[in-house]
Amino acid sequence: MTAQIVISFQSYWFVGTGREAGVYADSIPVKKKLSPKHKDLVPCVPGKTVKGMFRDAFITATRNGWFKDNPSREHLEEYLFGTPGPDKHNNKESDKNKTENKEPGIFGAPGILHFSTLEISDAVRAWLCENPQAVSELFRTVKSTAIDAATGTARNKSLREYEVVVPLTLKGELSFEEKEIQELNFKDSKDFIARLNEVASLITELGGKRTRGFGQCVITVKEA
User: Fold this and answer.
1) What angle do CA 165, 171, 174 make, to 5 degrees?
2) 216, 205 in Cβ contact below 8 A?
3) In which region does residue 209 sit, left (phi positive, over 0), alpha (psi from -120 to 50) or beta (all else)?
4) Helix residue ranges, H only, the chain
5) Which long-range contacts (CB under 8 A, 24 or more apart) does 143-148 make?
6) In angstroms, rounded to a whole number, what is the distance separating the alpha carbons of residues 51 and 71?
7) What angle do CA 156, 12, 171 make, to 5 degrees?
8) pLDDT in tens, 2-27
9) CB-side neighbour CA atoms (13 Å) of 82
10) Contact present, 94 and 202 (Cβ < 8 Å)
11) Which residues span the domain enclosing 49?
12) Tens-place pLDDT, residues 53-109
């Protein structure tokens, strides 16, 4: 079963790569090729970032009793999003035992939800392929600096410059097995998507510098 995730950014945003871009910027967003035939790069949001945001929102929802009617509520997060395993350098169990034991929280287990990378729509991609010179218009650079409380002036060497992305709508996919969803006491995939869409309403910002007004967004989950 596949559902569609749509994220509409309402402000400048960026999901950083963790790498600097020399004199151009101290941080640049994650990008991927516009198409196999184009070297131009366009913004995207990795699936692991989306998964993390949904997981945080899901934890908030369960702590506030959103799934109190679900008998599986105590383990929903683990089964949906997976659990990390122990430190591989300290774990003495055999690889065979890791593979055979599927209980979450023991050797680590993948979740039943799979998130794809969120990308620009096909229509926008097609237009940019015809007008590649417009790709640069998707990005801006912004600067920030720290202010010295004593002097009221900028602190020495505190100037930072970031490359950010203009407000865009990105789309991706969420896949899962209907049987596994029903085993977690959801009626069917339609019921689960509706509940997940409610959780998505808790995600109001995504990416870096969210406390500074970046990454404001609206996320919806729809039947594909």
Assistant:
1) 130
2) yes
3) left
4) 47-63, 76-81, 95-100, 122-130, 178-183, 189-200
5) 144/212
6) 23
7) 140
8) 999 999 999 999 998 755 554 445 57
9) 15
10) no
11) 2-62+113-178+187-223
12) 999 999 999 999 998 888 888 888 999 999 876 654 444 444 444 445 445 445 567
Q: Which single residue is written with the structure tokens 């569609």?
A: 4
Residue 13's CATH number: 3.30.70
Number of neighbours of residue 73 by Cβ within 10 angstroms: 15
Query: Considering just the CA atoms, what is the radius of gyration of the chain in Å?
Result: 21
For residue 33, give the H/E element and its range: strand 31-35
Secondary structure class of 141 (helix, strand, coil): strand
- Answer whether residue 157 is part of any domain: yes
Q: For tokens 């994650």, what's the residue?
A: 30
Residue 24: strand, helix, or coil: coil
Task: Give how many domains the chain has, as a whole number.
Answer: 1
Alpha carbon separation from 69 to 59, 62, 72 (Å, rounded): 16, 11, 9
**Both tokens of residue 89?**
């350098």
CA dihedral 188, 192, 195, 199 (to 10 degrees): 180
209 and 12 Cβ atoms separated by less than 8 Å? no
